[in-house]
Design a protein that fits this description.
Number of strands: 19
Largest sheet: 6 strands, parallel
Length: 468
């Protein structure tokens, strides 16, 4: 009697197009992690994928258009039997409307469904879902990942983003993120520490702590017990200070850099900095002297209409305290120009501030009139030509400052995390958004090296590796 061997079916493949910020990237890692845990194979080749997921950004007009273009392009190339899924902020916000406008999409996933992505993808192949698109978005996002949540790392092996909180409580008039991602909710310190420990043990040498407002970390957990108007005391409840102190005890072993790794804070808010936090960063050798703190504007009138919850004097004082309290500090910030009601006087005040403070890293955005925000309804909307002119003027000033700051590094030795054989970053440079170090010869990727700065390329440094 002949024995017939049945070859098991090949696993289905899923491809991901992830757009937007690092917080969105973590959501993508969670979706792919759940899919992989259910037997899906992750592929970078969309032509080869059984399911293509477009993880969208819905923050500003240009990001929304980029997301729509990516969906349309993916949809135009679908072969028979291939599925298209849309996730992320745009899906969370507009799934109902997009379902009618984008018939090529088979399912819309919200922010609370990212950890169930695998089972959702399975459902796409059931006969009852062949004809109509699924809208799985739920309102009032509440989800946040844990250290046990499967993740498929999309960053290079030596660097990772760890989301310590989700959502936002701030009332900024230009922003609709709280409407999409819900109120601020923090992970426990134990959960974050366990994930960081796992990442470091797996070879990650740069941990980027992220959330919508990293400096608000833990305060929601304390407020749940003490009440929203009670002062937050890190000795009685979790805060970013106590988290950093716990992370300081993590050690890496079996690494060519003797256990060295960096911790970087991204997306802090000026309203929640304290002298205690400044001291915690200064005393922790793991935490790099880098502060990412979007300020958005400096003129008091604009800070008021933007609902930034801080005054100009508070910002000026805070910058002084940060630079005095954290040696070798680099501050990265962003500003919005062309906000409704911004006069030439307001803009010149901002320019004077940038010129005087000389931020080590700075980005400028022309105001985007975000549907559903309070600012979109304000009088005094600025013409596009004026917004673009102010953007060019501000960036030209910052280019001059950045060039001077870079030139001052010539002759110094800097610590570099090697990203590519001849490209790295210093502790003052976050992935994707900041400057790089162009190495004069190759160095091992994923390792820390010392390099002597020999020149500049406007924003970037040119450096010679030492002992490599």
């Amino acid at each position: 009697m002949a024995v017939v061997l049945h070859k098991p079916p090949a696993p289905r493949k899923v491809g991901m197009i992830s757009l937007g910020c690092a917080k969105n990237l973590v959501d993508a890692e969670v979706m792919l992690g759940d899919a992989a845990s259910r037997g899906y194979e992750i592929t970078a080749n969309s032509d080869d994928a059984d399911v293509i997921v477009v993880n969208t950004c819905g923050f500003i007009d240009t990001a929304k258009q980029e997301s729509i273009d990516a969906i349309l392009e993916a949809g135009s190339k679908l072969r028979e039997g291939q599925k298209l899924v849309v996730s992320g902020c745009l899906s969370q916000r507009y799934a109902g409307e997009l379902r009618n406008e984008l018939p090529e999409v088979h399912a819309f996933i919200g922010l609370d469904q990212v950890a169930q992505a695998g089972s959702i993808l399975d459902d796409l192949f059931l006969p009852e879902h062949e004809e109509s698109a699924m809208n799985l978005v739920t309102r009032g996002s509440r989800y946040i990942p844990d250290y046990t949540t499967p993740k498929f790392q999309l960053t290079p092996a030596h660097t990772a983003y760890v989301k310590i909180a989700e959502g936002c409580n701030h009332p900024c008039s230009f922003c609709v993120i709280p409407q999409m991602r819900g109120r601020h909710r923090s992970r426990t310190i134990d959960s974050v520490v366990r994930e960081v420990r796992q990442r470091v043990a797996g070879g990650v040498r740069e941990i980027n702590l992220i959330s919508q407002d990293t400096t608000y970390y833990g305060m929601d957990l304390w407020e749940q017990k003490a009440g929203p108007r009670q002062p937050v005391d890190s000795s009685r409840g979790p805060t970013l200070v106590s988290l950093l102190d716990e992370l300081a005890d993590i050690g890496a072993t079996g690494d060519q850099n003797d256990g060295e790794f960096w911790i970087r804070l991204l997306y802090t808010h000026p309203a929640h900095w304290s002298d205690e936090l400044i001291a915690a960063i200064a005393r922790n050798p793991r935490v790099v002297p880098y502060v990412d703190m979007p300020l958005q504007h400096i003129h008091q009138d604009l800070l008021g209409t933007m609902k930034r919850e801080t005054s100009r004097q508070h910002i000026e004082d805070l910058i002084g305290r940060l630079r005095a309290g954290i040696p070798n500090l680099a501050i990265r910030t962003t500003f919005i120009v062309g906000f409704p009601g911004e006069t030439e006087e307001h803009f010149e005040s901002l320019m004077e501030f940038i010129d005087r403070v000389r931020f080590e890293r700075l980005g400028v955005f022309a105001y985007s009139r975000e549907e559903g925000s309070r600012a979109a309804k304000m009088e005094g909307q600025i013409a596009t030509t004026t917004k673009n002119r102010r953007h060019r003027t501000a960036m030209k000033l910052q280019q001059k400052i950045a060039g001077e700051l870079a030139a001052a590094q010539i002759g110094r030795t800097v610590r570099v995390l090697v990203e590519q054989p001849r490209v790295g970053r210093t502790m003052h440079d976050a992935p994707e958004v900041d400057c790089k170090v162009v190495l004069t010869r190759q160095a091992p990727v994923g390792r820390f090296i010392d390099a002597r700065v020999t020149g500049t390329q406007v924003y970037d440094l040119v450096a010679e590796p030492i002992g490599v």
